[in-house]
Fold this sequence. Notes:
It is a single chain. This protein is 31% helix and 36% strand. The protein is an alpha/beta fold. The chain starts with a helix and ends with a helix.
Amino acid sequence: MISLLTRRCFLAAAFLLAGCAVSSKSFYVLTADGPPPSGGGGPGVGVGPITLAEYIDRTNLVIAQGPNELAVAEDHRWAGDLSSSIARVTATNLGRRLGTGNVRTYPWQGDGGLRWQVTIDVRQLHAGNDGYAVIEAGWRAYSLPGRQVAAARTFVDREPLESDGYPALVAAQSRLLARLADDIAAGLK
């Protein structure tokens, strides 16, 4: 017969082991290519809304394991809303490329001071099991006022992961967003 003390010690050890088995979550943010532009002058650019493919519109990072198979990283999550993060990073990157600090993210109050609005439809943004991060995004720039389409393209690219792991994946995705901003800026000039 097991004594009450032995039983309590056994239960305490079981809870301790169960606590050790719980993995900690890691949170990630996309980063802009360099510091934000200084000053508020220059052509005004509004970025957004951003739409995301359903499979990436989640808090978790996504990895393609095969042509038709995805894995969701349960313990590796975005630190905030992914569409808002893409808008923020793209606005900063566009500001640097266009030499303006007059950038806003959707939603904004009124179009005053804006020359363009850029909307982005992110169709793919994940890592593959081939060691690359991929992006496919359709973007459309509207001249303001009047909302006439000034430029529209589909941007497709891939970036090698510099190492294994989720930090390398997020860094590669940030570099892809920098190149997306290059493409948008070229379309606006």
